[in-house]
Automatic annotation (TrEMBL):
The lineage of its organism: Bacteria, Pseudomonadati, Pseudomonadota, Alphaproteobacteria, Rhodospirillales. Keywords: Phosphoprotein. This is histidine kinase. Residues 20-243 form the Histidine kinase domain. Its EC number is 2.7.13.3. The chain holds residues 126 to 386 of 519 of the full protein. It catalyses: ATP + protein L-histidine = ADP + protein N-phospho-L-histidine. It comes from Elstera cyanobacteriorum. GO terms for molecular function: phosphorelay sensor kinase activity.
């Protein structure tokens, strides 16, 4: 189970990174191959350098082919967004969560009533909760309590949330609270960075929270952390609530292209 989680965190992160890096590499390689062509024009086929430059160009072309594969892989990770009830997702996860955190930690789930729906990829939302639960467990080596609660919050005025501004509206809120070690401010400031970890080599990837952050932002949501050394940590996630009016019948129907005037 542990390996599967680390593996899936890695896959998510690789997918996200791959798209961006592959794109830049593609541009760099195109330039390198272009310069090879320029050099080749200045040499005759029999020259000693000609064969060497050909080698560089061929390898450049092979690298470009690999990069294209990587781009294809990252595009494959299609989102399957649907309208879900967070309570259903949590109920389905509760078994796995209990196994994940082990014996010494108590698990409390508080479901808010009539939460409404949010528009997410349910698999990604599970990943978010699992990543937060794994971190909570790691922060409580001597046991403690993990509390996951859901509720609705109406935000009346635009609100600062980390680097972002949260628009007014109804949000479904998920809070994940542990009674663990807590974090000092300098750690809190860096936790969402990819590859930032305070865990020993081999046990932390530093990708869990950057993945969480990526998914939450991609879903149009927000995340914040509150933490006190020796008391514990709460991660709070806000996801835009889908208004009841937007349920099935109101989904816009795609229309045939109107004739051009
Ligand atoms: P990893 O768990 O692999 O280190 P993450 O991105 O999930 O990577 O977390 C980054 C760091 O944030 C952790 O190494 C840890 O220092 C800190 N952290 C995350 N969650 C908690 C928590 N619930 N309590 C204390 N520290 C935490």
């Amino acid at each position: 189970l542990e390996n599967r989680i680390v593996q899936s965190q890695k896959m998510q992160a690789v997918g996200q990174l791959a798209g961006g890096i592959a794109h830049d590499f593609n541009n760099l390689l195109t330039a390198m191959i272009g310069y090879c062509d320029l050099l080749l024009q200045r040499h005759r086929a029999g020259d000693a350098s000609f064969a060497d430059i050909m080698q560089i160009k061929q390898n450049g072309n092979r690298a470009a082919a690999l990069v294209r594969q990587l781009l294809a892989f990252s595009r494959q990770q299609k989102l399957e967004v649907s309208q879900v009830d967070i309570s259903d997702v949590l109920a389905e996860l509760s078994h796995l969560l209990r196994r994940l955190i082990g014996q010494g930690i108590e698990l409390e789930l508080h479901h808010g009533r009539d939460l409404g729906l949010v528009r997410v990829d349910a698999g990604q939302l599970e990943q978010v909760i699992i990543n937060l639960a794994v971190n909570a467990r790691d922060a409580m080596p001597n046991g403690g309590r993990l509390t996951i609660a859901t509720m609705i919050e109406t935000v009346k005025f635009a609100r600062r949330m980390g680097h972002e501004t949260m628009a007014p509206g109804d949000y479904v809120v998920i809070s994940v609270t542990d009674t663990g070690s807590g974090m000092p401010p300098d750690v809190q400031a860096r936790i969402f960075e990819p590859f930032f970890t305070t865990k020993p080599v081999g046990s932390g990837t530093g990708l869990g929270l950057s993945t969480v952050y990526g998914i939450v932002r991609q879903t149009g949501g927000f995340i914040k952390v509150d933490s006190t050394i020796g008391v514990g940590t709460t991660f709070t996630i806000y996801l835009p609530r889908v208004a009841p009016l937007e349920e099935p019948q109101a989904v816009p129907v795609s229309r045939e292209k109107a004739p051009t005037e």
